[in-house]
Amino acid sequence: MFMRKIFEDSDLEADALYDEFLEIIINGGGYQGITDYLAQKLQVNILIENEYFLVLARSYYDTPTFSNTERRTGIKYWKPQHVDPRIVEYVRLLKSTHQPVALPELPEYGITSPRMVFPIVIKEEITYLNIFKENLNREQMRIVRVALHSLVVLEINRQAQVDLEDRYLKNLIFGLIFSDKEEDNNFYEKENLPGFDMSREAVLTVIQIKVALGKRQMEGVLHSIISDLSMNASAVAISDEQAVLLVQSSDGSPLETTVITEYLQALFEALKMTFTNCKIKIGVGRQCYNARDYKVALNEAFQALSFTGRKLGSEEGVIYYHSLKLMECLMQPSNEQTLSVFVRSIIGKLYEYGVENNINLIDTLECYLNHNCCIQSAARELFIHPNSLRYRLEKARKISNLDLTDNDTKLELQLAIKLYRYQGEFLWQS
User: Is 216 helix (H, G, I), strand (E, B) or coil?
Assistant: First the structure.
């Protein structure tokens, strides 16, 4: 195995080189220090990434290697490496063989030179050392082996530190969201999580990925996406399919709703790109101002997840608890029978007619009401002629005996349709 050869190298001439790289680690140079020194020794560009394509360090010796890709505006995440068949195959080879792999230039990713990719695998975690030169001579390979040995030492130390910080982080977050001990609140209000300031407000969300591959992968992907989006957030997996995300503003200013909305939508899109075959939902609870808020916000986020799960035709997306307050009041267990009777009394005949005749007049009414009863704009959204919409509305009126000019009737109709969207077929089974 390639990595085993690193430790078997007995070349005495490499001793001084080993000392130089280890001195960088001892002095806290980290990935960037090793990358800079390796680029200088090899006189090539160097890039270090984790398995989620998060750049850990980059050093330019020959700047033309990297081109400027089109600059994006707004908060966006776009890493097509996750779905590019070529990259997927290279990753498979690196993970299965632990041997270096040659990659061609990839201008669509801003890479204009071929490279050799060397995998560093520690405890099932993989890091990629990218050297932007195809054919390395004997001396260059000796330097690379020493650099890889140093990176193994650095990675082992980093993982030990991360494991310690993760345990600390998880203990505090789990205490915030799960503890029933009121006296614990005073402790948490005095403590700061790594990268998280307990003295400032935060938004709590629960991310659910069906079916993910475990806690480690969920946290790894989330950490990479958070970094790429420049989010000030902490993510902790609470099960193999769920993680808690705590989001704060980056500069200590109050959280802006529009910014949080944009970040979470970008996060959702990024997760969909990464977990292409999984159902993804993000439930968003209230903003938290003190330790007591977090447990309440967690329950709200879970309720948001459960609501979207029951919503007809929708199994994914970002769901905000504050937008479900009316539903939360209505959809209590004691109200289920009453609500079913109410919905059936308003739209039951329309539902039955739709099943028998394969025409959905409920969708037509919903669109009409959403457009403030404007025939023209509703017809445009439905891609039908205004006269066709008038015909459907008249048909719905005759079937349901509803007066669509009465404000109270329109309110009841909107509420019945909203309940139907959340409850779906369950309404007709009770």
Answer: helix
